[in-house]
Amino acid sequence: MSGSDMYRQQILDHYKNPRNYGEMADPDFSHVGENPSCGDTIKVDVKLADDDETIEEVSFTGDGCAISQAAASLLTKELPGKRIEDLHGMDTDDITEMLGVEISPMRIKCAVLARQVAQDGAKLYRGEIDEKDRTITEE
Amino acid sequence: MPVSDATGLDVEAIREDFPILDRKIGGDVTVPGPDEDDDTPLYYLDNAATSHTPRQVVEAMTEYYYEYNSNVHRGIHSLSQEASVAYEEAHDRVAEFVGADGREEVVFTKNTTEAFNLVAYTWGLTELEPGENVVTTQMEHHASLVTWQQLCEKQGAEVRYAEIDDDGRLDMDDLRAKVDDDTAMVSAVHVSNTLGTINPVEEITEIAHEHDALSFIDGAQAVPTRPVDVGEIDADFYAFSGHKMLGPTGIGVLYGKEGLLEELPPFLVGGAMIRRVEFEGATWEDLPWKFEAGTPPIAEAVGLTAAIDYLEDVGMDAIEQHERELATYAYDRLSEFDDVEIYGPREGRGGLVGFNLEGVHAHDLSSILDDHGVAVRAGDHCTQPLHDVLDVPASTRASFYLYNTREEIDELIDAVDTARQLFA
Question: In this structure, what are the phi and psi dihedrals at residue B345, rounded to the nearest 5 degrees?
């Protein structure tokens, strides 16, 4: 894959006009993460349906490179209607499929940041992991 | 490709010595080396990170491995003697190249970073006292900045950072104000790897000496690109890396004044650096071997010698002029864009230009440039605190060397313009 391929219309559109951008008034859970390699930061707010399982609404705020911000924007569109189990089932391939482009190896961390923040936020909400201030993307 | 030789360098001939410059890119990057999908010419503008290696250097190292590969300083057999001569003479060659008095003042390290650590662990841990201070600058590479920061923390000493002005020059008044009679070390980068600023290192050293402090100059971006004379600078320590000056990775140089190095304890201990070992204790080899424990980078020293031969053959004055010409050209062309912010001064700049395109993260820009075959560095360039001062998370840096041309800078400008349009 190559640079311009990575910046197809969808990515640029979501970067320039992020969907569901902003803080949610009463989220069921929120979490923050960063990707130190680009200095990207993402905060994800999630509202669940009455069953406490189904994701109803997702919003985000953040700062950073186009890949990280577009991935977060796309994720807020992708998740509503899915269950938390589905979120946990998302892997890197699902993210690149969602982005619609191949992501070069050095930029994968940017692409998966929002997903990882959402996953860690859900685990914290359910008490599956101990207190974690921030999610830091690693290899 | 068309070449320019406005500064008198025969760039076309030079480029023929660097096979990698003919490589195409664009294919699978998860497997090292060229593949059938590579179709984009390479415009390599990342020389401040590492330079390429001419045939002459690779051939010298190949000859070493094929003809006289052996360990040094211990064998009496012929190969070992040949290798030892080559390894020792590499120190002489480096000494001559940077104006040191002799091989005693030239210690081979792994890189510039290790040279800084060597001084921190030997001089720093034994000489730096609580209440004393180390004065360095806001534009230091982490190799220097983190070393002094951690050393001072360990020793209960204070680290002070001389500030930069709005043009990205070192504020000499601030430096002068921060150096006092409790200052034990003044350490500054010769040429900033992010701003390109060339610092007045003679003057900095003089200020240090007026206060009986030592000076340590980081020459990683200076030795490859301009004539350097450590004697003229009068620096007590001076460090640089082989791989940024056409040499191999894995070898760097610490220059130190002989009298000073004489007084310091060893850094790493073990083989090769000892004179006599008993169960109860040991004594140390003469300089510089006292600081070169274990089997050293022998092939790399042979390669570094060949790199210096190559550079001197071209001429350091001509290289400096060529770099200045390219940097000014890049600076002026980037300045044509209203939405490009350039860091560092236009004048008194080494061969690199750091910048940001408004609204486009440096990593996004770098990815798009890569698609055009333009290789630049994007990120914090190991100067995170400096980026905090500049108030940006990252920057993009184009850095030039003797084989680069104006036409390659035109490619950079075209690619930046593409990114501007994509993100507009």
Answer: -80, 155
Closest chain B residue to A102 measured between Cα atoms?
Answer: B28
Q: Is residue B98 part of a domain?
A: yes
Query: CB-side exposure of B363: number of CA atoms within 13 Å?
Result: 26
Count of structural domains within chain B = 2
Kindly identify which residue of chain A lies nearest to residue B395, measuring between CA atoms: A38
Q: Confirm whether B169 is domain-assigned.
A: yes
3-state secondary structure of B106: strand
B382 counts as catalytic: yes
Tell me which of B360, B361, B372 to substitute to probe the interface with A (most A C-beta atoms closer than 10 Å).
B361
Q: Are residues B353 and B417 in the same domain?
A: yes
Query: What pLDDT tens digit does each residue of chain B (424 aa) get?
Result: 444 455 679 999 999 999 999 999 988 888 899 999 999 999 999 999 999 999 999 999 999 999 999 999 877 899 999 999 999 999 999 999 999 999 999 999 999 999 999 999 999 999 999 999 999 999 999 999 999 999 999 999 999 999 999 999 999 999 999 999 999 999 999 999 999 999 999 999 999 999 999 999 999 999 999 999 999 999 999 999 999 999 999 999 999 999 999 999 999 999 899 999 999 999 999 999 999 999 999 999 999 999 999 999 999 999 999 999 999 999 999 999 999 999 999 999 999 999 999 999 999 999 999 999 999 999 888 998 999 999 888 999 999 999 999 999 999 999 999 999 999 8
Roughly how many angstroms between the first and final C-alpha of chain A, as a whole number?
19
Q: Beta strands B214-218 and B237-241: pairing type? A: parallel
Interface of A with B (CB under 8 A): 2-7, 12, 15-16, 37-39, 64-67, 104-105, 107, 110
Among candidates B30, B363, B370 on the partner chain, residue whose Cβ is nearest the Cβ of A38: B363
CB contact under 8 A, B363 and A107: yes
Tell me: do B147 and B234 sit in the same domain.
yes
CATH assignment of A3-136? 3.90.1010.10
User: ipTM score of the complex?
Assistant: 0.84
Q: Count Cβ atoms below 10 Å from residue A17 Cβ, excluding itself.
A: 10
DSSP code at position B360: B
The residue of chain B nearest to residue A65, with distances taken between CA atoms, is B361
